[in-house]
Write a structure and sequence with these properties.
271 residues; alpha/beta; five-stranded mixed β-sheet; 10 strands
Length: 271
């Protein structure tokens, strides 16, 4: 476990260069967006970091929680000036090798489709100490905050999480869409991340493998953000509802009978 920095201004109090601690990296899960959903450990790391490297899905409200004298670097992969994963890896390494405490702030949880595993491998390869601070993944937040339980004794006892990026590449895809369909048919819940653009292909793939068009489906855009949107329907209607409500990334798609529960509880859901 990496020890917390006792005093980030120690260099200004007469400490010599020999007393400077070795650099280290904290891969911190920022949660779904609302700063109130940060873990206490994540908040502490943000308060003691020398530099914070944050991604494109980090909200401004969360960035405002970082002390003013901390260096903040946007390392998002979105246009107009995206940073490659290789550049991010090198930036983390270089900062740590200078003796800095680097916080790599990643939306959700660092290891759930967040390339956290790749980054820890890179740090270990260069013998840089690191820790991973768990965050609330959008997998959990999108469903829970919208009144959709991922599991329910009467509806679903198993859960599958997949990426929607490769829906159209059936032969080259790392996602077994037949297995995904089997999970839904067996009464399970399927969570699809990063599947907004390819939703029509996802819906078609599930139906091609035997999932009924009447199967409940929902989408949660920007879970816990002020601009959060939630839609529900079926595999037959979810694409048209996406278009009507102009659902855009980041959004989570939920498929399974548990989606119906939202309709029975939403009138009493505090938001």
């Amino acid at each position: 476990m990496i020890k917390e920095k006792a005093d980030k201004d120690s260099s200004q109090s007469g400490a010599s260069s020999e007393e400077t601690s070795e650099g280290k990296v904290s891969l911190v899960g920022a949660g779904p967006g609302d700063p109130d959903l940060l873990t206490r450990r994540a908040w502490k790391r943000l308060q003691t970091a020398d530099v914070v490297l944050y991604d494109s899905l980090t909200t401004n409200d969360l960035i405002d929680e970082i002390p003013e004298n901390t260096e903040k670097v946007d390392v998002g992969k979105r246009q107009p000036d995206p940073m490659t994963q290789e550049q991010i890896n090198e930036l983390m390494k270089n900062k740590a090798e200078k003796g800095e405490h680097v916080v790599r702030l990643k939306s959700g949880d660092p290891t759930v489709f967040g390339r956290g595993g790749e980054e820890t491998e890179h740090l270990a390869e260069h013998e840089i100490e690191f820790e991973t601070v768990a965050g609330i993944s959008s997998v959990l937040a999108a469903a829970t905050e919208s009144g959709i339980p991922l599991t329910h004794r009467d509806y679903s006892s198993n859960l599958m999480i997949v990426t929607g990026h490769q829906a159209s590449e059936k032969r080259g895809s790392t996602v077994d869409w037949e297995a995904v369909a089997d999970t839904v048919i067996a009464g399970g819940t399927v969570i699809i991340l990063m599947g907004v653009a390819k939703l029509p292909e996802i819906v078609q793939a599930l139906q091609d493998y035997g999932v009924s068009k009447e199967t409940p489906a929902g989408m949660v855009e920007k879970a816990t953000w002020d601009s959060e949107q939630v839609i529900t329907g079926t595999l037959e209607t979810i694409v048209s509802k996406r278009d009507k409500q102009n659902i855009e990334p980041p959004a989570v798609t939920i498929v399974g009978s548990v989606v119906n529960i939202r309709d029975s509880v939403s009138d009493y859901l505090i938001k």
